[in-house]
Specification:
The chain has 107 residues and is of the alpha+beta class. It contains four helices and seven strands, in the order βββββααββαα. It has a three-stranded antiparallel beta sheet. Strands 1-2 form a two-stranded antiparallel ribbon. Strands 3-4 form a two-stranded antiparallel ribbon. Strand 6 and strand 7 form a beta hairpin. Helix 3 packs across helix 4. The protein starts with a strand and ends with a helix. 30% of the residues are buried.
Length: 107
């Protein structure tokens, strides 16, 4: 899977009861700041979805103020890779479930 020109290694573990997705993201992104609107442009996920994921604890918030949400780019890239991989193998509703489960298990 390619994210913004960089390769994310995706591993999907599947059993009849459970699907879990692990991704390997470039460690250089860890701690890098990215504004939610810039992340939307770079990764192709709506800023409201990214904000919801951040407020749910799936993506670290570095700074927050009215009209400002700065996220950890490593977490954004990881969340997007997991969600996109889930969408490729199942329905959108189930992809959301797989995303949540995978994010919680590998956080």
């Amino acid at each position: 899977m390619v994210i913004d020109g960089e390769t994310a290694h995706v591993k999907i573990n599947a059993t009849p009861q459970n699907i879990h997705i692990d991704v390997d993201i470039d460690e250089a992104l860890r701690g890098q700041e990215i504004r939610v609107y810039d992340a939307e442009k770079k990764y192709g996920i709506d800023h409201t979805v990214l904000g919801r994921w951040a407020r749910s604890g799936y993506i670290r918030i570095i700074d927050e103020a009215p009209k400002l949400l700065v996220l950890d780019e490593y977490d954004v890239a990881r969340a997007v890779a997991i969600f996109n991989a889930a969408k490729e193998i199942t329905t959108p509703r189930r992809a959301g479930w797989i995303f949540k489960r995978s994010m919680l298990q590998t956080a």
